[in-house]
Amino acid sequence: MALRHAVLAALLDGELSGYQLAKAFDLGVANFWHALPQQLYAELAKLEREGLVAGRQVVQETRPTKRLFHVTDAGLAELERFASAASKPSFVRDDLLVKVQAADHVDAASLITQVEERAAVAEAKIDLFRRILRKMRGGLNEEEFLRTGRRVGPYLTCLRGLAFEEGNRDWCLRTAAILRERSAATPREGAAPALASPEVARA
Amino acid sequence: MALRHAVLAALLDGELSGYQLAKAFDLGVANFWHALPQQLYAELAKLEREGLVAGRQVVQETRPTKRLFHVTDAGLAELERFASAASKPSFVRDDLLVKVQAADHVDAASLITQVEERAAVAEAKIDLFRRILRKMRGGLNEEEFLRTGRRVGPYLTCLRGLAFEEGNRDWCLRTAAILRERSAATPREGAAPALASPEVARA
DNA sequence: CTTGAATAGTCATATTCTTGACTATCCAAG
DNA sequence: CTTGGATAGTCAAGAATATGACTATTCAAG
Questions:
Q1: How far apart are CA B157 and CA A161, in angstroms?
Q2: Is the dihedral of CA B75, B79, B82, B84 positive or negative?
Q3: Residue pLDDT, tens place only, B133-146
Q4: How far apart (Å, rounded) are the C-alpha atoms in residues B171 and B119?
Q5: CA torsion, points A98, A129, B115, B24, in degrees to nearest 10?
């Protein structure tokens, strides 16, 4: 149950409405925690009942009234407690990797397309992360900022997101190239092509 | 609902019992899909009811009787269908990243310890993946194997796991170093240390 | 000769997450 | 003057996951 802690961590940078929070989760936070708007509204309500966040109503003229939430002292204490407790091992879930695992038994063309699409998505995220990082460190260079900047937490997690997507892109491009080469080498085979194995090569 | 497909993909390499499958998930497959043994038994039962896998009873003398499962033609067709459908975006969940996001507001010492422990875990996984990869490619070098080997799917996903853990390790080590340096620079501060910010520097 | 680890598997409960729909207001483009 | 997108939020139902406990057998260490 760390969604609540992810929400608390996201609210540390200032007051957010549920809607803004949902967008934040879609961007930065999404790189290490994923949640739909519905869950966030529900979690905010629970956190408020428990006194870990507090909301204040903001009546807007041109927009629907919204509620801005901030972390309370109790919320900060809960984050402290969470941060000191043992971390569960991280986990990833990725359809595409499941498909690649089965690559030798399924249609190559569609798989290659999907891997290349994923590379493009990763590239877009890389650009986004680079922009966010530039904005966060302001005039300072990275080393300076990491030594002296306030709030390096979000910067560090963003760096992990950047490296992750770079790894993603590189792997996708390489994988696509390999699958392409292999499917070119056996143009008339369907699933599970009988490529040259060590045994065959010896024969 | 891609657990079923992860199970099918894992069973492509040969018959496995529920127990063996659980261990396979704990190792290789866990890098892109995570599931507890209970889920796997339940999923196998469902897959069998739907005719996507078939099990055969194996009576053992020295061990409890087990059931070995393999993918049926219908299961293969289902995998094909899945592989051609659009992939959901991958997602990661990581307690540790949530904690680092809040790094400027929580106790540094405990966080540094955890980040360094994670680096060690990553290192161990790197070793494991290297061994698995070596074993999979047999006598061939990597390039050769990727061009001509049978079943490159598991090899490719393992490569992604390796790169992921290398990224993890590198980021953890860098993050630990930065947090250490910062907490050394403000030895008597508690949470949210007032480090030199651009504004402060100007003053 | 008892304890603990590994094998092999099951059940029930509770929480969490996803899906899909729904209510509103405002602004801008066509 | 209607449609679509952005803002702001809510509800209900159902699927998927997690937690914890439970039954057995075998082998090896102490």
A1: 19
A2: negative
A3: 999 999 999 999 99
A4: 8
A5: 0
Rounded to the nearest 10 degrees, what angle do helices B108-137 and B153-185 cross at? 160
Residue A101's closest CA among A111, A110, A92, A91?
Answer: A111
| Helix or strand holding residue A200 (H, E) | helix A198-202
The answer to whether the beta carbon of residue B34 comes closer than 7 angstroms to any atom of strand D is: yes
In chain A, the DSSP E strands lie at 16-17, 53-58, 66-71, 91-93
Name the 3-class secondary structure at B71. strand
Structure confidence at residue B61 as a pLDDT band (50, 70, 90): low
Q: How many CA atoms lie within 13 A of A86 on its CB side?
A: 2
Beta bridge partners of B55: B69
Q: How far apart (Å, rounded) are the C-alpha atoms in residues B189 and B8?
A: 53
Q: Decide if A164 contacts B167 (C-beta within 8 A).
A: yes
CA distance B15 to B20: 9
B-chain residues near A167 (CB < 8 A): 160, 163-164, 167
Nucleic strand D within 7 A of Cβ A22: no
Q: How far is the CA of B59 from the C1' of C4 (A)?
A: 25
pLDDT of residue B62: 67
| Distance in angstroms (rounded) separating the CA atoms of residues B81 and B76 | 9
The per-residue pLDDT for range B107-133, each reduced to its tens digit, is 999 999 999 999 998 998 899 899 989
For B191 and D15, how far is CA from C1' in angstroms? 41
Pairing of strands B16-17, B66-71: antiparallel
d(CA B129, CA B108): 31
Q: What is the pLDDT of residues A103-154, one digit of tens each?
A: 999 999 999 999 999 999 899 889 989 998 999 999 999 999 999 998 999 9
Task: List the structure tokens of B190.
Answer: 């508690």
DSSP B143-155: HHHHHH-S--HHH
